Amino acid sequence: MKDSFLFPIIFMLIMVILFVGILAIMYRVSEPKIEAYKLDSFQRQVLALMAGKIAEATAMDAAQIMADYPSSFETYILPVELHDMDRQAFQAVVGDSVVAYCFEIKGKGLWGSMKGLISTTTDLKTIVDFAIVDQMETPGLGARIEEDWFLSQFRNRLFVQAPDADDVTKDYEFISETQEPETSNQLKRVTGATITSDSVLRMLRAEFNLIYRQMQGLKS
């Protein structure tokens, strides 16, 4: 049997099956911890995007609000149900007042899907803060959309300008990363990642249109 050419093939098959089985068992054992970590990271990010508005309403420090997680999340963050949309949404509530919203958004980049989180003012017109939470873009190029200099351009940025139009969003355009904006509607794109940068803006505009109409329907 050992001299047969079948022996190494059978041996390799047995080893592959054995290691795949071990990996599957390890994954199943650790799966609850992995999911708990993902949920924890997601909730921290949601809180971080609205911590500034919570701080304004409570006269607390945003850093202290984050330090008090998960208690602060349980105290101030409540879910919002968006009908007909596969998106998670949240509201920050202080006392009886909503002080900010946070929405999960989805889009497509150059190489695959991307996901983000945006917090907005209560009139749903202005971005308070913005984060990319998942993307498949090229490291060192498109993946730089996660960098703070790029994301900070969207903070405190009016995004809904025409509430009664088919497209409610304000028109923005990208310029080179090395240029300085000359008008309020210019944003710097990531060098070497024109398509990815455009994809972020396209995602924001498409999702804002959906979310704004959904939330106006809930409020009416």
Structure description:
This protein is α+β, with helices and mostly antiparallel strands and 220 residues long. The protein has one domain (6-219). The chain has helices at residues 6-58, 62-67, 71-76, 148-151, 194-219; strands spanning 77-80, 89-94, 97-108, 113-120, 126-134, 157-158, 173-175, 186-188. The strands form two sheets. The protein has a six-stranded antiparallel beta sheet with strand order 1-2-3-4-5-6. Strands 7-8 form a two-stranded parallel sheet. A hairpin with a 4-residue loop joins β3 (97-108) and β4 (113-120). The longest helix has 53 residues, at 6-58. The radius of gyration is 23 Å and the shape is globular.
Keywords, separated by commas or semicolons:
5 helices; two-stranded parallel sheet
The total domain count is: 1
Shape: globular
Largest sheet: 6 strands, antiparallel
Q: Which spans have pLDDT < 50 for at least 5 consecutive residues?
A: none
Element order: H for helix, E for strand: HHHEEEEEHEEEH
Spatial gap, N to C terminus: 78 Å
Q: Mean of the pLDDT scores?
A: 92
Q: What is the helix tally?
A: 5
User: Would you tell me the structural class of the helices and strands?
Assistant: alpha+beta
